[in-house]
Amino acid sequence: MEKCNCRNSQLSAILARYTGQEGALFNVLQDAQELYGYLPEEVLVSISNHLGRPFSEVYSVVSFYAHFRTQPRGHNLIRVCTGTVCHIMGALQILARISQELGISMGGTTRDGAFTLGSLPCFGACSHAPVIMVNDDLYGRVTPGRVPEILAKYSCREALTTSS
Amino acid sequence: MQIYRGHVLVCAGTGCVASGSRNVQAEMEKQLEAFNLDKEIKLVETGCHGFCEMGPIVIVYPEGIFYCRVQPEDVKEIVEEHLLKGRPVKRLLFKNQITEEMVPHYKDIDFYKKQNRIVLGNCGFINPENIKEYIARDGYEALAKALTQMTPEQVIEEIKAAGLRGRGGGGFPTGLKWEFARKAPGDKKYVICNADEGDPCAFMDRSILEGDPHALIEGMAIAAYAIGSDEGYIYVRAEYPLAIKRLKIAIAQAHELGLLGEDIFGSGFNFKLNIKEGAGAFVCGEETALIASIEGRRGEPRVRPPFPANKGLWGKPSNVNNVETFANVPRIIARGSQWFADMGTEKSKGTKVFALTGKVKNTGLAEVTMGITLREIIYDIGGGIIDDKKYKAVQIGGPSGGCIPEELLDLPIDYDSLISAGAMMGSGGLVVMDEDTCMVELARFFLNFTQMESCGKCTPCREGTKIMLDILERITKGEGKEGDIELLQSLAETIKSTSLCGLGQTAPNPVLSTLRYFRDEYEAHIKDKRCPAGACTALASYRILEDKCIGCTSCARVCPAKAISGEVKKPHKIDPAKCIKCGACIETCKFNAIVKQ
Ligand SMILES: Cc1cc2nc3c(=O)[nH]c(=O)nc-3n(C[C@H](O)[C@H](O)[C@H](O)COP(=O)(O)O)c2cc1C
């Protein structure tokens, strides 16, 4: 709870920094997400009140951009590249294998909060296709068979001890 | 100034970083010090060389020896043998795929031989985080020339005479666009760089941003002078953190030397640059959407006219160009329009950077003169198809482009020839496909992409792409019906002609072009419930060949669905009811005893 209060004062600082500037809403949302890890509803409400913009407008910007999240993420983020080359090199089979191993589908989070499964917009590592990223680690030329071994590196135990 | 007898260039482009170049660089630094060579040999971190397939890449000068797939454990040998004793390490040289000969020099490697590296000329050769290296290669001379010897009108004339066309996809003449912005009334104007690069598998802009950021800054400053602007924005995708970092460094260094800021070169011209990070929406690459996004709103496109040249950012006249377009500008101003206009075809001048990916042997970035044929790119530069499989098609221009079949491989490529072949230049992504790719499934993939990225503002794009996708999904599952092809065609025409922006107007292209060249594949799915490429999972089945299976049980052990059974040393069987078609069994079988049909 303490943490929360301290974050709220940081949010006020962010709001103060951008208020009155053109295009403030977008920047506030970006910084707020960095602060909270996602954009909880009460944060969106206070941004809307503070900037004097209707909640619907705030929400319409949040829902438009893929980078804004309204749900917390699991401790480890697995992303499967959805680019063309990864696709023709078998990305769907890898996605299927990850889903099966973790029991979640695209966009889902495991019940223990250890993993969230998402997609990775192509960033041009096509020479290594198919690629997946776990947090900041890139794995290239992945095969479905390698999936369990990769996931094992990010065990739940680590997730529980380091998340707070 | 310190003089070095040699230079070691380590690529720090995203491709090489992904294959571990950071560790190679760290090890190199350590070894140079260990051998007391750090005062003699300079270690330089460069941008992308384009040959990502062979990364991490290390080049040693003055000889220009090209080492590929270098691992940290190889570094000591390079230092000891090559840098100390002058004997290049043979086993790390590039090997010609046909003759198996070692190719020590980078310019003799087939991948580079047919290229004409102008825009990428500095990438991989200079340290992008040091402005002096750009200046040493005549950087900012073009800006000085424009500001001190040319009027804005002359700059525009020069760009027009060069015949430069927009590299962001549309191919609109750049000089003309600048003229519109110059003539638009208003005292505040903006120059905007579109570095959103949203087309999957296109990464040429990233390579310029990471490897030669000053070329972009210089090009933008010249454009600003030409149209009468004093402020610019670079809209970069957030997926490119390294590019953003390097741009920030480059802008700061240019400010320090007075190449950005007030009264540049004492000419009275002021120019200030801002960076704006995208937030993951493909449609924001469309120029009016991009402007809305910079303004902090939903990035939805709007009807044009008014064009940004008259009513752009904050309602002011604005000029939007692509990264590669801007990077061409300093070269044209420095070397003259004639030099540029001498390259290429009648209506498409200069070069184009293509991202060559997919089932080719050499993947990476290739800058070629306009008018080159696809065959030359795929077979000479790309080295042909992996595993010598059969070429099927190349997808050019990403989700808004189309595919080019075997019979058109000798077509000289430029903006106009590609349009008449039913494709388009787009951003320059070239994804090569072999016989294992299903063209219907590929069309479904692209429609899925555009449908997800459709902003929803106009009905044809929002609803139409959804219906097309539904039909394609049915076909790939073997549930296609008589009449589906005709329905797809008529929907495609309607969406193309009635959508608000380029996203919808081009979304049906992958369907139309695969129908044009591979209609038989659609028919096989619909009529025979068969996928000729064997790629559509729902239509595929896995089978164990009894005469090849030795009963080693490894497939049964990896099968996540427990669908394989059998006794040890006896042929196994797959239960089709349980099989989830994940392919794990094929992957582990050492005896090629499992087939997908
Ligand atoms: C959906 C859509 C996405 C686009 N994405 C990009 C992009 O990522 N990069 C780009 O330079 N142009 C993109 N464009 C084209 C731009 O709208 C614009 O034409 C271009 O930036 C103009 O620059 P140029 O004349 O230098 O090519 C896109 C267009 C559409 C319709």
Instruction: Give helix and strand order of chain A, one letter per element, not per position.
Output: HHHHEHHEEEHH
> How many helix segments of chain B?
23
Total separate domains of chain A:
2
Based on the structure given, which CATH architecture of the largest domain in chain B is correct?
3-Layer(aba) Sandwich
How far do the termini of chain A sit from each other? 12 Å
Q: Based on the structure, what is the oligomeric state of the protein chains?
A: heterodimer
The shape of chain A is elongated
Q: How helical, in percent, are the residues of chain B?
A: 25-40%
Query: Major sheet of chain A: size, sense and barrel closure?
Result: 4 strands, mixed
Q: What value does the Rg of chain B take, in angstroms? A: 26 Å
Question: What's the overall average pLDDT of chain B, rounded?
Answer: 95
SS strand fraction of chain B? 15-25%
Descriptive report:
The complex is a heterodimer of chains A (164) and B (597). Chain A is an alpha+beta fold and 164 residues long. Helix content of chain A is 49%, strand content 11%. Chain A has a 4-stranded mixed beta sheet, covered by helices on one side. In chain A, helix 1 packs antiparallel against helix 2 (24-36) and helix 3 packs across helix 4 (55-64). Chain A is elongated, with a radius of gyration of 18 Å. Mean pLDDT of chain A is 89; it is low at 157-164. Chain B is of the alpha/beta class and 597 residues long. Chain B has 5 domains: 6-112, Glutaredoxin (3-Layer(aba) Sandwich); 131-341, NADH-ubiquinone oxidoreductase 51kDa subunit (Rossmann fold, 3-Layer(aba) Sandwich); 351-434, Ubiquitin-like (UB roll); 439-527, de novo design (two linked rop proteins), CATH 1.20.1440.230; 541-596, Alpha-Beta Plaits, CATH 3.30.70. In chain B, the strands form 6 sheets. In chain B, strands 9-10-8-7-11 form a 5-stranded mixed beta sheet. In chain B, 54% of the residues are buried. The chains are: A alpha+beta (164), B alpha/beta (597). Bound molecules: flavin mononucleotide. Flavin mononucleotide binds next to strand 11 and helix 20 of chain B.
